[in-house]
Amino acid sequence: MKNKPLLSLNDMEKEILILKASLDIIDSIVNYNVLDIHHYEYGSVVSFKTSIHQEYFSIYLVDFLSAPASDFGLKRGSYISLLKDVCSSPVFDKDNSIAYLIKPVTEFCNWLETEVTIKQLWFPSIHLNIDLKVTYSDFLYIGGNISKHNFTRLSACATKMQRIFKDNNVHKETMECLLALEDYQNWFHGDGNILGYLSSSIAEFLNNIRWGIHRYLQTEFSRSYTIGKENTYSYEYPSTISNPTIKFYYWDLMNSIRSTPYIPEFEVSRHFRNHPLLAQ
After folding, report:
1. DSSP string, 188-253
2. CA torsion, points 77, 196, 169, 145, in degrees to nearest 10?
3. Segment 182-204, tens digit of pLDDT
4. Which residue in 28, 60, 22 sits closest to 148, CA to CA?
5. How many CA atoms lie within 13 A of 19 on its CB side?
6. What pLDDT, in 10s, does the model give residues 144-176?
7. Are 210 and 26 within 8 A, CB to CB?
8. What's the Cα-to-Cα distance from 107 to each of 48, 58, 114, rounded to whole Å?
């Protein structure tokens, strides 16, 4: 029997949770504590403060590519897929402001679904050298989970790795795939450092989504924002929100729209959009 959600939410309340949670994750990933963003005449390049920050980046990224807990009654799917649903049926849309969000969400979704070939990927623990075909989504999901968990909690990743191998006409047992994950992580974070190359594009995608949410909600912010005495401010809640918890999240969401996103929009140099071993 399925657990009953903690809250019974209408469409507006669900959208508030999706936007608020998405902003929290993106702001944890794309910020100056984790990243250095270098701007040049030919485009921008993102780098990590340290290797620990790179792992931190991948852990939060895999959260964004995973589904939230079922407690809030949201549709099952990753946060990026939930944002895609918001784009299809936006609650706060005024004068087609949702167009600001549709573009970056669609671009990131399309990129994640792109299948690439990682050339000459070597798995010494299982004696396998392969040109591995994999989607960016699966590649990042596995790498982030390896960063997040030790091998005793990676059975789902081993199963996913087994399926990817099978799609590449390689048949391995689940335990062999579990061993292969350590080799995989060396390519993801270590000597291969594929994530280091992809991070510039990923940061650009996520920052564009951050700006898209900001622009999408500008009209709602203007409607609800009220200046009181002594320059205090408040927000006028939409009439369809009655739950105190959702009101709290709505206030936080509007506060995040109150000021301009702290990382300006940037465009990554084409030279740093891919790894030399990756081919589409």
Report:
1. HTSSS-HHHHHHHHHHHHHHHHHHHHHHHTHHHHHHHEEE-GGG-EEE---TT---HHHHHHHHHH
2. -40
3. 888 888 887 678 888 889 999 99
4. 60
5. 31
6. 888 887 787 788 899 999 999 999 999 999 999
7. yes
8. 23, 20, 11
